Amino acid sequence: MSKFAVMAIKLYGHPLSAPVQSVMFCLEEKALQYEFVHIDLPTGQHKKEPFLSISPFGKVPALQDGDLKLFESRAITRYLAHNYADKGTPLMPSDPKKMALVSVWMEVESNIFEDTISKLSYGHQEKLGKILEVYEARLAESKYLGGEEFSLADLHHLPVINYLSGTLFDGKPNMSAWYAAMLARPAWQKVVERMKHSTKK
Amino acid sequence: MSKFAVMAIKLYGHPLSAPVQSVMFCLEEKALQYEFVHIDLPTGQHKKEPFLSISPFGKVPALQDGDLKLFESRAITRYLAHNYADKGTPLMPSDPKKMALVSVWMEVESNIFEDTISKLSYGHQEKLGKILEVYEARLAESKYLGGEEFSLADLHHLPVINYLSGTLFDGKPNMSAWYAAMLARPAWQKVVERMKHSTKK
């Protein structure tokens, strides 16, 4: 098999975009080789062809795997988890009931957590506090958000949390322990390295 | 088997909530019997116990299937599609690449379509117009949003579209044909019946 074949996955994006970081995190957890195609957001490269032919709404990330073109970070990571189920870290349980709980907490990240954090500058601090209480209670029930194993549910939270103050989880022992475990993952450290490299440019 | 066993699925919500309608639509497509537990939103029943023990953020819908408690509509419909794959209409392909495209268009509904429609009163009409152009192009490529078959990607759009004017798709033949096909689905008509019944109360 040619070297080209193993580099068939292309990730299009910018390393400072949180959803792009989620996909990088996922690719590292799955131990998949990939080519990072830099899309220059400041010059609006994401709003022009040829990028629009992969991501028609002009949003990063996008992913190409052979002839499959995908966009929307959570759809991409679900695909990687299912299609490469036997590679790297399992990120999505095959049991439908366990899978359902991972989906619940992926939706919470998208519709409740990320949504509130993106509005923090509009005074949603109190709302975030109440949300974190539910998280703290969830992590008293199970080791990770989606269940007893690390999954896509945890993975998608990290780039968003990374925007916030490190004191966010003060007084929340379950969340603090969970966050420390997230930061320690070698796959996340590889993402952080790539972000640093990008900032220096 | 007792009659109780076949009524093991409970859907908690209000029939006029769009995400609740998505789950009803899904349950009807899957030909699953279920008990509808009315949660009275005007009196804040969703923000109190015992509902909070099923849906800790106090949001409808929630679903109980045996001892499994789920919330977030898209997580619930994914669960129903996977766990009852052999019942009623197949709503999620098993092939990972086909499944990925359904996920892409579920994410588009959540993060782009529904998000823009919920902000229409803030002058997002132009943005919606551009979004619908991408949809029209998508439906030139494939019969349904997620691929050649009806899927969760289509299903989640309908309750949101239902809020809008019927002229939304004027001049968009692919979207008009798709919308007509959606409205004609017997499962959707059952949801509409339940909504009418609720309005009369």
From TrEMBL, chains A, B:
This is glutathione transferase. The keyword Transferase applies. One of its GO terms (biological process) is glutathione metabolic process. Its EC number is 2.5.1.18. It catalyses: RX + glutathione = an S-substituted glutathione + a halide anion + H(+). It comes from Buddleja alternifolia. Residues 7-88 form the GST N-terminal domain. PROSITE patterns: GST_CTER, GST_NTER. GO terms for cellular component: cytoplasm. Keywords: Transferase. The lineage of its organism: Eukaryota, Viridiplantae, Streptophyta, Embryophyta, Tracheophyta. GO terms for molecular function: glutathione binding; glutathione transferase activity. Residues 95-201 form the GST C-terminal domain. Belongs to the GST superfamily. Phi family. It is an enzyme of class 2 (transferase). Gene3D superfamilies: 1.20.1050.10, Glutaredoxin (3.40.30.10).
